[in-house]
Amino acid sequence: MRRLVFLLPFSILLFLLLGGEDSRSGMDPQTVVETELAEGQSGRLVVLIIDSLRRETLEAPGVMPELLEFSTDNDVFVFDVESCAANFTYPCLQTMFEGRQSPFVAGLHNFTGRASDGRSVPMELEARQRQLGMISNVSMVSLYGQYAAQAVDVENWSMSHLERDLKTFDVVQQWLEDDELHDLFVHVLGTDKAAHHERPGTEGYQHHFRAVDQRSAELVAQLDLSRDHLIVTGDHGHDEEGHHTRNTVALMAGPHWNELFEVMDKPEELDQTELMYFMSYAAGLGLPLHYEGRYFLVENGVDAAVSDQGRAFVEATKQGLFEAGYEVGDLELAIDGHRRDVERRHERSLVHHLPLLALFFLWLLIIFTRFAGRFALRHSWSIHLGMAAGCVVIWQLNTLSVPHSLGLSAVFVAMSVGWAWRHRALRYLAWAALLLAATALIGLHVREWADFFHTRGGFVPGQPIFYTMLPLMGLLLAWIRFDDWKRAPEAAMAFCMFS
């Protein structure tokens, strides 16, 4: 029974983490800009994601000749795209369909098949009662399959990667012929396997991409690009060794984009978040307020001399910002203010969590010293229940200003120091404090975390810092906590877990 006491604080922490993002830390991320665009004029929206597509492969002689020729058409717009920071399929799909960067940890989280709480293009298509067909593996299907009228997981097919890709196009061809589905999201996965296992330049690699290129051209031929809108892109790219890079490409064709680029300069490069802008513009959808990309019409000073589609899109942007409390007389200024609020959301979230973290730190310190035999307490459950109640109250009711939040946190920290001093547990306090400080330092390099694991992108300062600190922190923490160098591996693992 005594050991079960350990489970109580961690159970409370798990409950708080699963409780989701606190709405008091910033603007409601699910507020959506509604539009009044003419749905019937937009035709289909078809998004073809060729996994690991890169410009070098598209332009290589004889590898993807059909799409390369298609890209030279005057009505086709080609962009270099910087993919999501985490740079593998799950978070990159979230980034393009939700219009905001999905971090590496969110990508790992979504291996459970659970999407984020943010609004997405598939969600908005369903809200407009547009029938969506989706074909992918568990990645897209688990994230957004609930919004599709038909969702196919290709991993249920027992065949080679190339055969899966070709069968994917067979399914899409049937969908286009029967007209039951209005919009199509197609994810061709085997090209990523070809990049990893065959490597660029090999016959197997070129054969796979040529086959996908041919079937892509057949898909394009089935569309009416005077009404329909097509995006061909990759979730990420790859280098000459087949490792993921953040360099991919996007081809766009459709009437609303033609009108758009008649009144504004076409950017040469897009962030992957900005693909949502063009999908939403073409399909007559709104932009969520968590959208992180550029507002192209507004930022190019174009708010009147555009089509009905463009004017409605700008007015919808104004409406959404106005309803969120922004003064929209100067729309560009309102957008800048909104972006600053989004950037400060994480700071507000930290302020909200800081007293909770400080109280939790004190709680763990009491448990460590209690089970180390530093003190005896007949009714220890009263402390644990009080701490649990305190955590829940702070989480639910904390609307403190920054000074008050910092002050309350300082009180809990002082109580931790006092407790450690009274019960001669300063070594425990130092160990826990050093662990938190070290992981906070790693947190400063969170944008480079993807490069530790999955991405080739040149030298990143965070890499040697992370790998050097790993054994050093293991040795140091083992010495402070256990007074035993042999416990360094366990201490290093604790450091990794907290990081």
Please give the largest β-sheet. 8 strands, mixed
- Let me know the number of strands: 10
Low-confidence stretches: 1-7, 16-40, 104-114, 447-458
Give the distance, in angstroms, between the N- and C-terminal Cα atoms.
30 Å
Mean pLDDT, to the nearest integer, reads: 78
Helix/strand/pairing class, anyone?
A: alpha/beta
Biggest sheet: strands side by side, in what order? 4-3-5-1-6-9-2-10
Helix share of residues? Answer: 40-55%
Tell me the Rg in angstroms: 26 Å
How many helices? The count is 21
Strand content: 5-15%
Based on Cα principal axes, name the global outline. globular
List the defining traits of the structure above.
single chain, alpha/beta, 8-stranded mixed beta sheet, globular
Question: Could you explain the architecture of this structure?
Answer:
The protein has 21 helices and 10 strands. The protein has helices at residues 7-18, 55-59, 65-71, 89-98, 104-109, 121-127, 138-144, 161-178, 190-198, 203-222, 255-263, 275-283, 296-299, 308-323, 331-371, 380-397, 402-422, 426-443, 449-453, 462-482, 488-498, and strands at residues 45-50, 76-82, 132-136, 150-153, 183-188, 229-233, 237-238, 244-245, 247-253, 269-271. An 8-stranded mixed β-sheet has the order 4-3-5-1-6-9-2-10, with helices on both faces. Helix 17 (402-422) runs antiparallel to helix 18 (426-443) and helix 18 packs across helix 21 (488-498). The radius of gyration is 26 Å and the shape is globular. The two termini are 30 Å apart. Mean pLDDT is 78; it is low at 1-7, 16-40, 104-114 and 447-458.
